[in-house]
Amino acid sequence: MTPEPVVPDFGGRCLTEVVPALAAHLAPGDRPAPGWLPEPLAGARQVVLLVLDGLGACQLAERASLAPTLSSGSGTTVTSVAPSTTAVALTSLTTGLPPAVHGTVGYRVAAGDGVLNVLLWRSGSRDAREEIPPRRFQPFPAFPGLAAPPVVSRWDYGPTGFTAAHLGDARLHGWYTPSGMAVEVRQALASGHPFVYAYYDGVDRAAHARGLGEHYDAELRGADRLVADVLEVLPAGAALVVTADHGQVEVGGSVQVLGPELMDGVVLLSGEGRFRWLHVRPGAVDDVAQAAQAAFGGLAWVRTFEDVVDAGWLGGEPSPHVRARLGDVALVPHAPTAFLDPADTGEQRLVCRHGSLTEDEMLVPLLAWQPVTG
Length: 374
Known about the structure:
Elements: H1 18-26, E1 46-52, H2 57-62, H3 68-71, E2 74-79, H4 86-95, H5 99-102, E3 108-111, E4 114-117, E5 122-123, E6 126-127, H6 134-137, E7 150-154, H7 161-167, E8 171-175, H8 179-190, E9 195-200, H9 202-210, H10 214-232, E10 238-243, E11 249-250, E12 255-256, H11 260-263, E13 266-272, E14 275-280, H12 285-296, E15 300-304, H13 305-310, H14 320-323, E16 329-333, E17 338-339, E18 352-353, H15 359-362, E19 363-369
Parallel strand pairs: 1-9, 1-10, 7-8, 7-9, 12-17
Antiparallel strand pairs: 2-19, 3-4, 4-5, 5-6, 10-19, 11-18, 13-14, 14-16, 15-16
Helix pairs in contact: 4-7, 8-10, 9-10
């Protein structure tokens, strides 16, 4: 039987609501903080939000014994967004907006006559920062209500187009090695900042490179020690919150090639292997959707653009300029496989992937702790 997709819980327990909820907690006003915020936040005057890229709630639950600090946190599970991929999810987290609004709708999105790689901010072999200014591409402010908080992340992410697009005016406090993260967090809190955003991508990198085996387990242990290090530097009156942008599915070499029965009606591919958009010739959408359903209906949810919007996957009706970045038919695997885009050779090397709406990809933790005492 075909499973049901995990639809983003926009307006509820979703990544889009995390930063607005923390802002409401730190500066109470007209919007009350939701009751699902983890209990250790009660009374906290400073909050550190640490994102562990790629750490799904399902993967963490299966390895609780490997991560004693993470397993000790109090909290809940929230949904990622669609597609459940870093470019989309981090932008939704930092802006508090769904993809239909902020417009960062994939890892690779249609832009003019080509495709923009959002993480690298490249179109083909070209640096696209002048051609497609990041702040124009994604114009909404990051961390609304939190006044440009410090961002503790890898130092080399500072000048990238994606950083400009999803972090806006936030000030980067770069770390050179993971051990430096706790140092930067402590210094930011000591300077009196009420909110600090921190980001670590090791779990995601390990899963992409080596899958969910021994290397992943070792990296999870390392990430758990990193969380413990950050927890140790929290002063009284602060709290640590940990979440993630998405989980993972191990795909390995299982890749689906789109045959001529589909590609004869397709002019462009965008998205990612687990949320592949087909951009279709005028008048051919129904034929392509039917051919895709016949070929891949046992492996994937096959949806037209209208189906995706009507089902609430994107959190609303995209504006015309956002609509232009999206395709006409989406192939979204529920099986552990991916759809090939020959133009994206880097993606073919990934062992684990994400982007679809399975539980393993869509459910992420939201955990919190008060400072270590005694």
